[in-house]
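Quiz preparation item.
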């Protein structure tokens, strides 16, 4: 373990870049450690502390494809390319007083996207790429938050030991407050079958609503609070989070009275033929210094296309509404559905270039074919643009992730299929394929086929 630690320290502090080959070797070291740790005894029924770790290496490749639009200024290059991401995370937690839990997550991440820039798609192919900023691994604080639970009766239910979750017992009727540094997606839109790009679907549209421009820094985290109220089969959630000072930037704006990201979610649990399911409605509203597409289009000139920066001069409101369903089909299978529409009048603040999204899919456990640790998943995702964003791009404008002066608009469609093989206790190797029609909403490009291999370990 000390050898692995020394490799990380040298990678972070050394002057040379940590190339893909070395990252792969480092991932293998962590997998060895994971296999050794798997022999430990399971935790007690009620945990007072937790220390869990994960490491994930994701390699992706796409062959050359048709690029009838010509310019590639904000597009994936049509030549054959490779990309990768690597991350390793510590999840530490402890009970501090009655009903309270404190968690801290340091993380090391690295990676290089296609075309050496994160452009050219609405639904990007790797959910880990938001945390990577080059081939040199960087250490940063991912989460630091307190969770307080007030029990209110109605019977009890067990809480399983998991990442940032201590095993124990809570009342079915309860109130929960999360405050500190965390991700909005830790509390909202918690789908059972499509949530974690390290173990499930990799595409951005597979781990939350692609049109959900939730307030966060460039890595997907922020500071704020979220309150949850559970009563019988119902759950109600409200939260406010810090937005970035500049769209898709790392620096956060802590003036939560003037600039913020709010979300409200209502959840109803149910059973169909004794199989559990949930229905959620999520509404969100952001306030930040953003450019309006209509203003940016009016300011376009033949000499330059970066006019979206020139009209980003005052606070704007952005909002959206979504519906999500998850339903078990059997003990081994479940389906999910997400639909969301945003107003689409302003530029992207913190997520991706999508104003309306639909994603649905099925997840199957390998128990039925004698491979209980394996998982098979398939999903269809469709992304669209508002008339305001579309008109700006058609006029030759550029936004953060897409645009190059030519747009033959069609909705972007992604089909993703993966198979995750359990190769050792707590270690999985996943093969994944994504087929993308109309990348960045342009029918003159593509389709693109993306092949991926993902190595993931938990210990």
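Solution:
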């Amino acid at each position: 373990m000390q050898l692995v630690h020394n490799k990380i320290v040298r990678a972070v502090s050394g002057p040379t870049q940590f190339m893909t080959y070395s990252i792969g070797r480092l991932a293998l070291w962590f997998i060895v450690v994971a296999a050794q740790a798997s022999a430990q005894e399971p935790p007690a029924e009620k945990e007072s502390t937790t220390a869990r770790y994960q490491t994930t290496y994701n390699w992706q490749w796409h062959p050359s494809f048709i690029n009838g639009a010509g310019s590639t200024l904000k597009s994936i290059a049509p030549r054959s390319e490779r990309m990768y991401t690597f991350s390793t995370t510590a999840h530490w937690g402890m009970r501090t007083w009655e009903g309270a839990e404190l968690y801290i997550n340091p993380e090391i991440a690295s990676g290089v996207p296609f075309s050496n820039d994160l452009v050219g798609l609405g639904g990007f192919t790797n959910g880990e790429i938001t945390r990577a900023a080059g081939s040199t691994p960087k250490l940063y604080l991912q989460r630091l938050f307190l969770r307080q639970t007030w029990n209110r009766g109605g019977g009890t239910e067990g809480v399983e030991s998991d990442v940032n979750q201590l095993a124990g017992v809570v009342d079915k009727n309860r109130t929960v407050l999360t405050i500190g540094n965390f991700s909005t997606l830790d509390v909202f839109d918690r789908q059972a079958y499509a949530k974690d790009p390290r173990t499930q679907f990799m595409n951005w549209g597979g781990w939350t609503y692609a049109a959900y421009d939730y307030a966060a820094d460039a890595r997907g985290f922020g500071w704020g609070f979220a309150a949850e109220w559970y009563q019988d089969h119902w759950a109600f959630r409200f939260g406010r989070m810090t937005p970035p000072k500049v769209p898709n930037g790392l620096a956060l704006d802590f003036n939560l009275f003037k600039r913020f990201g709010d979300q409200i979610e209502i959840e109803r649990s149910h059973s169909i033929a004794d199989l559990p399911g949930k229905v959620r409605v999520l509404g969100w509203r952001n306030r930040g210094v953003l450019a309006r597409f209509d203003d940016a289009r009016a300011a376009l000139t033949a000499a330059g296309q970066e006019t979206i920066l020139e009209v980003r001069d005052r606070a704007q409101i952005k909002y959206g509404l979504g519906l999500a369903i998850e339903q078990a089909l059997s003990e081994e299978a479940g389906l999910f559905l997400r639909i969301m529409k945003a107003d689409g009048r302003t530029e992207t603040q913190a997520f991706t270039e999508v104003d309306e999204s639909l994603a649905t899919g099925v997840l199957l456990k390998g128990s039925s074919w004698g491979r209980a640790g394996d998982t098979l998943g398939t999903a269809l995702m469709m992304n669209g643009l508002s008339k305001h964003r579309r008109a700006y791009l058609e006029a030759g404008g550029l936004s953060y992730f897409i645009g190059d002066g030519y747009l033959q608009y069609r909705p972007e469609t992604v089909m993703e299929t993966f198979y995750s093989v359990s190769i050792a206790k707590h270690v999985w190797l996943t093969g994944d394929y994504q087929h993308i029609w109309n990348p960045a909403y342009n029918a003159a490009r593509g389709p693109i086929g993306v092949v991926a291999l993902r190595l993931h370990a938990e210990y």
